[in-house]
Write a structure and sequence with these properties.
The structure holds two protein chains of two kinds.
Chain A lengths: L3 H12 L4 H10 L4 H49 L5 H24 L4 H26 L5 H19 L2 H19 L6 H4 L3 H23 L3 H4 L3
Chain B lengths: L4 H38 L18 H28 L5 H18 L5 H23 L5 H20 L7 H22 L2 H10 L9 H23 L5 H18 L7 E5 L4 E5 L1 H28 L2 H23 L5 H37 L1
Antiparallel strand pairs in B: 1-2
Helix pairs in contact in B: 1-4, 3-4, 4-5, 5-6, 5-8, 5-9, 6-7, 6-10, 8-9, 10-11
Classes of the chains: A mainly alpha, B mainly alpha.
Chain lengths: 232, 378
């Protein structure tokens, strides 16, 4: 058996810049056998090496994330500069490409061990592109949808994606969007044209969302362990 | 002159909003801070080994997420109902609508154990009751203080119901919500009456008719008082409330019933020029002001003592926070302009030091009594 305390002691001593001889000497004086000390040394050195490799990997990840953000910003600035010159179909294609690229690349990176955070960031970006796409289509084709309906559609889309991607933060984002939709509906004055324009689509969306969110909540509740569920 | 119904509605709604903003939100923030400090100190305690699990907002991450979805679903349902009512052209009063929503919410939260929907339903219930009571009082030109009397009785019922929930293990968390709601509203109403705004309400409304001229209000009041008395007696018999606590609850309820029956009186007078007028208390006004200030101070102090006797840390923290809020507000309100800044801060420090010393003494006394009890039981 390897003594964990011994490994910790060796690791801390090495970090304090003590020489190998000094550590050996002190341990043997404390009645430790040479074989055990040698074995613990090997482990301690391996762990220190892994730690430094982790730090190295993290710094590489940071640089990659930063690079990714800059690339995305560059693409966005380029698209916005040529946006006016694009035809309607091209605009839709650009949005679809942005959404699908961010989701697929995010999905791939999330499943790899190297850059999980990049994956999550790209999925988040895809979600924002998806929402922007909804509002763009509404304004482009003059669809009878108000802000509330658009936000609910955005929320519904996220609720379909979040369980597939197993991305918990997306659920919270969807909840925030849901509350924004409710607040935007209740803040509208009953005399305004927006209030009067509330159609059967709004009613349908609210009703569907009510049932849908309830079912999702119920499904998540089922995952709560039995030992906690006894408090219900 | 009695105030117009719309003014009364607006003013009571504003008071409800003030209660939520100025007392409810600080308490919520305070609760979250205490929770996070405790977690950092002791690490994440699993629910199973947490003595005060019923004071937790969520039992686990999944519990929090599912409860948030249920709350969202409930709000969507409310909006759907609002659209259906609008489209069907039904003419439902806002008070009735709020009560219907509150009942739906309460049924859902109790049957399916949807914890986050409970406080929202209680806010709707209070809002609905406020509107119904005000409609009744304004119809019969009854003084507004009757509305406060009814509201304080409702909040006292909440307080008692909060403790009654402790009879069933699974409903303890629901009880905490009722208890906190009762505590906030009772203290807020008492606090309002300890300020010039509250005293103005007392003066303005005592010129209108008393509730004795409306049989509907008498019936409602009787019903509420009867419920309060029965629940208080039951809770005391089950040893959930102390006898002194129960009698204090009944005293507060009857004090407000008496206030609603008071004859016309002059509490505030306007002094100064037309452009620079100032409201000053008359002799009766000063007596009322002293009475309410002493009364609320004693009420909060007794709350603190009862928490110590119950030996529940979270109750002690909560009542200490309410006491601190009250003392800080009153101190700034009364002495900030009157005293020199050095005297102001020095006397505040001494006062808090004395309060801290008393609390430490109480803590050691309770610890020694609990040790004695344990030794006796062994």
């Amino acid at each position: 058996m390897i003594d964990i305390n011994l490994i910790d002691y060796i690791k801390s001593s090495l970090k304090e810049n003590k020489t190998k001889e000094e550590i050996y000497k002190s341990l043997i004086e404390n009645n430790y056998k040479i074989d055990k000390v040698q074995c613990a040394f090997d482990y301690a050195e391996k762990e220190i090496k892994n730690d430094s490799e982790d730090h190295h990997k993290k710094s590489i990840q940071m640089i990659t994330v930063f690079g990714g953000i800059l690339m995305i910003l560059g693409i966005l600035f380029y698209v916005s500069s040529i946006w006016k010159n694009l035809s309607e179909i091209l605009r839709i294609l650009v949005i679809l490409t942005l959404v699908s690229t961010s989701y697929t690349s995010g999905w791939k990176l999330k499943n790899s061990n190297n850059c999980k955070r990049c994956g999550f960031a790209l999925i988040g970006l895809g979600t924002i592109f998806y929402g922007a796409g909804i509002f763009f289509l509404v304004s482009q084709y003059k669809v009878i949808l108000n802000f509330t309906d658009g936000t609910i559609l955005w929320m519904i889309g996220i609720l379909f994606i979040a369980p597939v991607l197993k991305f918990r933060s997306l659920f919270y984002f969807a909840i925030i969007l849901g509350f924004i939709a409710v607040l935007s509906y209740s803040s509208v004055s009953s005399e305004s044209s927006v209030y009067k324009s509330i159609s059967n689509i709004s009613l349908f969306l609210f009703f569907i969302s009510s049932i849908g969110t309830f079912l999702i909540g119920w499904n998540i509740r089922k995952k709560i362990p039995l030992e906690i569920r006894k408090f219900y | 002159m009695a105030m117009s119904p719309s003014y009364e509605l607006a003013s009571l709604f504003m008071i409800l909003i003030y209660i939520i903003i100025y007392i409810g939100i600080p308490i919520l923030i305070f609760w979250l801070i205490i929770n996070s400090i405790n977690r950092k100190k002791r690490g994440e305690i699993p629910v199973i080994s947490d003595e005060y699990w019923y004071t937790r907002i969520s039992l686990s991450k999944n519990d929090n997420l599912s409860q948030l979805f249920f709350l969202l679903s409930f709000t969507f349902l409310i909006v759907s109902l609002m659209i259906i009512i609008k489209k069907a052209g039904l003419n439902i009063d806002s008070g009735d609508f709020l009560l219907i929503i509150a009942i739906i919410g309460l049924v859902f939260s109790y049957v399916l154990k949807l914890f986050y929907i409970l406080p929202v339903s209680l806010v709707f219930l209070l809002g609905g009751l406020c509107i119904e009571i005000l409609t009744l009082t304004s119809k019969g030109e009854i003084n507004v203080i009757t509305s406060f009397t009814l509201m304080i009785i409702v909040s006292l019922i909440f307080y008692v119901v909060g403790f009654l929930h402790r009879l069933k293990f699974n409903y303890k968390r629901f009880g905490t919500v009722f208890y906190i709601f009762g505590l906030i509203i009772t203290n807020a109403i008492l606090f309002i009456f300890s300020t010039n705004t509250g005293l103005k309400i007392l003066e303005n409304t005592s010129s209108a008719k008393t509730f004795l001229s409306s049989w509907q209000i008498i019936l409602l009041l009787l019903l509420f008082v009867l419920i309060l008395i029965i629940l208080t007696i039951y809770a005391t018999s089950k040893k959930l409330l102390f006898k002194l606590e129960a009698s204090a609850i009944i005293i507060v309820a009857f004090l407000f019933i008496l206030l609603a029956l008071l004859p016309n009186q002059e509490i505030l007078i306007e002094s100064g020029t037309y452009y620079n007028s100032e409201l000053k208390l008359t002799l009766i006004g000063t007596i009322w002001s002293i009475f309410f200030n002493v009364f609320i101070f004693l009420e909060i102090l007794s709350l603190l003592i009862s928490s110590y006797v119950r030996q529940e840390k979270w109750l002690i923290n909560l009542s200490t926070f309410i006491l601190f809020l009250f003392v800080a507000f009153k101190y700034f309100d009364l002495f900030y302009t009157e005293l020199a800044s050095s005297t102001f801060f020095l006397s505040a420090g001494i006062f808090l030091f004395v309060v801290g010393w008393i609390m430490t003494k109480m803590n050691t006394y309770i610890q020694s009594t609990s040790i004695n009890k344990n030794e006796q039981s062994i």
